[in-house]
Description:
The structure holds two protein chains of two kinds.
Chain A: E1 2-7, E2 13-14, E3 18-23, H1 26-38, E4 42-44, H2 55-70, E5 74-81, H3 89-99, E6 104-108, H4 109-112, H5 115-134, E7 139-142, E8 147-152, H6 157-176, E9 180-183, H7 193-196, H8 203-222, H9 234-238, H10 244-251, E10 260-264, E11 275-278, H11 284-293, E12 298-303, E13 316-320, H12 323-328, E14 335-336, H13 347-362, H14 368-372
Parallel strand pairs in A: 3-4, 3-5, 5-6, 8-9, 8-12, 9-11, 10-11, 12-13, 13-14
Antiparallel strand pairs in A: 1-2, 1-7
Helix pairs in contact in A: 1-5, 2-3, 2-11, 6-10, 6-13
Chain B: E1 5-6, E2 14-17, E3 26-31, E4 34-39, E5 49-51, E6 55-56, E7 60-63, E8 66-71, E9 75-76, E10 81-82, E11 87-88, H1 94-97
Amino acid sequence: MNFLGYKRPDGKVGIRNKVLILPTCVCSSETCRIVSEQVQGTIYTSNQAGCSEVEQNLKICYDMYSGFAANPNIYGTVLIGLGCEGCTPDKMADEIRKKTTKPLEVVVIQEEGGTVNAINKAVKYARQMVQEASLVKAEEFPLSELFLGIECGGSDATSGLAANPVVGKVSDMLVDEGGSAVMSETTEFIGAEHILAKRAATPEIKKQIIGICRDLEEHLANVHANLRTGQPTPGNKEGGISTIEEKSLGCIYKGGTRPIVEVLEYAQIPTKKGALIMDTPGFDVASVTAMVAGGCQVIIFTTGRGTPTGNIIAPVIKVTGNSKTFKNMQDNIDFDASVVLSGEKTIDERGRELFDELVEVANGKVTKAEAFGFNECSMQRICKFI
Amino acid sequence: MTVNAVMLRPIDNVVTVVGDVKAGDTVVFTKEGNQESVVAGEDIPAYHKIAVKDLKKDDHIIKYGQVIGALTTDEAKKGSWISHKNIMSLPRNYEDEL
């Protein structure tokens, strides 16, 4: 089976074909919004940080925003900086060029003499790039070129019983086709990490899986915090998930059963293909953005309570195992996995149908979150602003 | 009888009800191919857990064949609603797992 994609000069294949207006920091974020509003075919992401940060937080910012530019769904990027920020336009451009050879233009607001001049220059670059992007013809590519990000949010007890196992089947099918699937959210491994670790392809990867869970708990203990005070969330509890162990044991089903070949840091691009893990928080939006920065062209997102979350770079396919939620939030949910709980279909059958839906979305079918143009963006942090 | 709850592993001491249950309702689930049942001692919302064994304080709660926490109340009789109000998470021992 093939899908229709857009070949990039770095060899990767996108399933969407957009020009990205990218801010280095919060001070250029609004300028990016205005530029994007003026040029059809562009998108922008907000950046709520990028300055007054310790080195570790700056690294996350560079990794994440350069990863957005490198994402295969992006044709090219107009990077807009302020000029005096911690996350410098020069270094961000270097980080982008290390990851991809795609078109890149840089505009610095202080060098241009203010917002109006910067917008003027950036709009010209963006208009040129959009026209170039429109000339890239969609071609057929094998499914091995797909990189799926798997997320859950607003979980309830149906997530672990229906939606996540169905997505796990999709993950296995894609890996068997030679593609990649990444599962994230370290918080939601805790209590199930000993089971997840059994999927490790090597003893070293097993240590990494246990290690990221231990490190997260130690990190929080250092500031006298315990994740159990915020996880499960109030909505999880109301939906029948009582402890982090119960949540995690349901969550890990969504990653399927294939050997885990690499454990990625937050927002890192993988070096291997197959079933992957990324060390992200259980905060769903900050997890989706990290996987998109890692190169995922598409996200499958399971929910029990129902969530609207989308992503402006990669389409998000929303799946629920809760029949009431599917009826109640039809505006937001793409796929009903509750038929697994009612016994109408098996996990394998519904998984194959979701796999077909994944290919449809790769071919251009617009998901519900995508139709809204949702543009949530959130970034993991190590510590306070300085 | 109609099955209205899910037991994930035979060693589990809770099952998940798939619809709202009223006190006195019979909750039916499949265990190793056979139907078993428990009478709900209280109202239980859809997708929440019901105890299928008598439990006492600190007993491990088992779902997915794994420990999901421990009972915090003095006891929970068979048929009780098991939720965040009467169980709590347990600390992990990562060094042993490594």
